[in-house]
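User: For my dataset I need records formatted as: sequence, then structure tokens, nothing else. Please produce one.
Assistant:
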Amino acid sequence: MSIPPGPLMSPGGDSVVRAITDDGAFRVIVARTTATVRGAVAAQNARGPTARHFGELLTGAVLIREAMAPGLRVQAILKGAGSKGSLVADSHPDGTSRGLVNFGVARPAEAGTAPEISVRGGALLQVMRTLPGGSLHQGVVEVPDAGGISGGLMSYMAESEQVVSTIGVTAIFDAGELVVAGGYLVQLLPEVERGPLMVMTERLAELQNLDEVLRTQGGSPDALLDELLYGMPFTRLEESPLGFACHCSQLRVVASLASLPRSDIEDLVRDGEVLEIRCDYCGKDYGIPPAQLRPLLTPN
């Protein structure tokens, strides 16, 4: 699998690695998402705790897509506690991801602080994934106060997908700059027996400080995989690249305008002015001349 080149592609070595224990007890997915998160955070100008939540959600969307629908699209939406703001992570089957930070009604930030979208006190996590036939599977869960984004992702997998999984995601910032981002998903398979389950439980307990592990190893997926499966024979199945990229284009922008009422499109054409539109995901500006709008007035 390759990521098509584009002006918004993040450099770096982000990737996702899949593996399975030789006894068939666990399927494991690990990911380094540092460059992906860095690109999305910069595009949205996210700061403070919100930037960390945003990075964790982006990583979680990648892990869920790889676990449940690697060839299809997954969107994860976090609705902040008290309905204050939302975060969107959009993960595509080509390995690219993008996202949105929406604070809702503008509110002034105190001097020296950044607005925060809180994951405590009633935040909701909605996950939508495309099914092979084109329909959507979606589920909504409440984010546990003590579990954060990782806990919300595990709740979704258990309640909506009926899959028992342990998930850990993190995005580490120092002085406002992203250092490393990544995470893991461990899925219990039907073949699991008591012995391997106890071993994995101990390994996960030792990995509770995911920040320290990723910081020490630079977010290396293989290093994280070795940590998770230490002492357990496993087979490394596949590795795929990840990156930040936006799927916007002039054609997509014009197509989106087709949903406007005909009278609005007629007014835009009549004005004769170039319509300026900015992509919410990446901030790229598009100029749509009236000539590109006229075909929208022609019956199909």
